């Protein structure tokens, strides 16, 4: 007979694991020790970011709330500059950048090491200009500054003095006279596609030597982007001759272009970051639309001036400088607004102007009226595209009322509007709507009077037919 033991088997000895090796989540493979190390690494990275930035950022990634439905407004399509979109351009444009560097070395008879060493000295300062952490190592970052900087300077100098003097052929695909610079100008005005201005200044100083003059880069930038000016009257703005126009006061091409749009004595004071923000939907209530203002007997006139933002209101008349709208205007204003939204030390001048125009323009009929008055000149497909452009520019924008340079004008116009009798305004609004919808051309008037005559003749015929029947 087989005997079976009734003694229970001794339990298998268990080993207590230290807390540092216990998995945070079963099957994750992450221990508490590794988890704490990763957190400390992130804290150390944040400390380094804080030391490198120290409030000196001036080239930003556009916030998501401004992206709207069209991200192409902020993304380069032809050429990428700087670290944000590094390596995302076409191979052909990469080749042209190296061609530009080679031309610079041939003209100056300097070794590439001279330019690289100069950028190594500026590396820490240049990195601090960009928001967030730049993953490029030191060699890649300094080489990027030399390559992209020489490419930009070749374009700026060539447009000023002629590309033939720089050694390029007339039929060169990029540095020539036959090509269009609009795709390059559009990409070079994007906020995320910028190089610090002191980098361009240092590279140009190495090229020109003793012939270099302070403020030369500023003038080159202004003249290069002059075709994008949204003004009817164009003139060369030599802003480097102004007392406050030292290159150290400008940050990059976007800042220089914005400064060329505004007079030095008209730049509002820096805004305070602790003020409570106000969204555009509240600002929309501060001034009526052009349709409502016309109903209140407000007149609109155009002003031929290069200062598109210099709007006046006197004795019930709004004098608005002519605004020229082209295919690049949306890119231009979008990135200028993004810069004003991101940079604490910037005013809201361009933003408040766009809000003002968006409030006035509430329909395609208003655009047509402004076009007849000479207030707007545009080359877009339709008047509705102008309305959509201003609506998209102002979506999600947050501003402080006291920072808007047009706020006194808002108050003046609003007081004039509300001083009218409400009944008169309502009646005039109806008549204005009728005029804009049904009497927008002489043919519309002729059609209306023809319909009236036909109605009178029909009524007369009916009357005489009934008269003959009863008698």
Automatic annotation (TrEMBL):
Alphabetical UniProt keywords: Membrane, Transmembrane, Transmembrane helix
Region: Disordered, residue numbers: 1-21
InterPro entries, per the entry: DUF247_pln
Keyword Transmembrane attached: yes
Pfam families with a match to the protein in the record: DUF247
Spans traversing the lipid bilayer: 443-466
PANTHER family: BNAA09G04570D PROTEIN, BNAC04G53230D PROTEIN
Name this polypeptide is given: Uncharacterized protein
Lineage, opening ranks: Eukaryota, Viridiplantae, Streptophyta, Embryophyta, Tracheophyta
